[in-house]
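W.,

You were right to be curious about this one. When I first looked at the sequence I had no strong expectations either way, so I just let the prediction run and decided to look at it fresh. Below is the sequence, 357 residues in total, followed by the output.
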Amino acid sequence: MLTTVIMIFIFIAMLAVLILVHEFGHFIAAKRSDVKVEEFGIGFPPKLASIKKGETVYSLNLVPLGGFVKLLGEEDPTEPRSFASKSIGIRALILAAGPLMNLVLPIILFSTVFMIPHNVLMEQVQVQQVAPSSPAAEARIEQGDIILAINGHKINNRGDLAYYVQLSLGSETTLLLNKATNGEQEVTLVPRWRPPESEGALGIEVVGAEGSQQVIRQSYSPWTASMLGTQRCLETLILFRNTIRSWIIGATTLQVAGPVGIYQMTAEVARAGLLALIVFTAFISLNLGIINLLPLPALDGGRIVFLLVELARRGKRVSPRVEHLVNAVGFALLILLMCIITYFDIARIIGGGSLFK
């Protein structure tokens, strides 16, 4: 029971951080644009507590699955310091600032992980088996070869190999090998989107070479960590793109999760330790930022679409009634979709399944 309570607390704390960062983006952009912020709310009503500081009410609400920033005059341009009175560019910036903050947060989180001392497994990654007619076989990779690098990235362990192969799916990839017969050699191949079962994208099976394993303690300076954190964030976006493409071509099965599914994943990741939880939070933040920029009603991206329509109409605004109706219908559909996803999340948990399997 205690473990469940702790996991729920960790999940709510993670959501609170992501929501706070997102809404802070809207908040600070509005403040810098001289738009009056009437309320900054964490969670959705009913209200649990609130305090007014300056012209803004800061509230904590019961439902912890979101947040909001209430701006003055979102539809009335006659109000001084109102949202609607600002130019299309300023309004777009205020709307986009929330998702953009969710895209910036992972850089900070990944950089933090690189700065914290952590154990890293070092081993020689050795080819144990090569599948016939696979990309590896065509590149003349042989049993016993040691994989030293992929596209210039040093391979420290089998996890590194799997990571960089996923980044390179469908693209020409260069492997640096240490071959038993003639030393170091580069080969070029293309990792497959749809490999035969149990073969993998390259068509090889690898092991840690006997006697090569050692664990080292590793950390980086703030400057180096920030560079690595930025790189890891960009690589994660590539992994997202590859995942979506694999869904489209049917190479992998589409997997989605609602709040219940994200709670299950958070609980599983939290058991692996603080660093794993920080990395997972970065992944969820990236997802949140991307989803909110999609041109869907009720999301920030959907509201930006109305601004683009206004721009195309040379400043003629879309009727607030029409915008409200579209956003209300979109929000209702999103809630319905969330309920359906939550049903399958609960069914999976009851059946002992996991999104990580």
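Here's what jumped out at me. The chain has nine helices and ten strands. And, maybe more interesting for your project: The beta strands are 37-53, 56-71, 118-122, 125-130, 146-150, 153-154, 173-179, 183-189, 204-208, 214-218.

Coffee later to discuss?

I.
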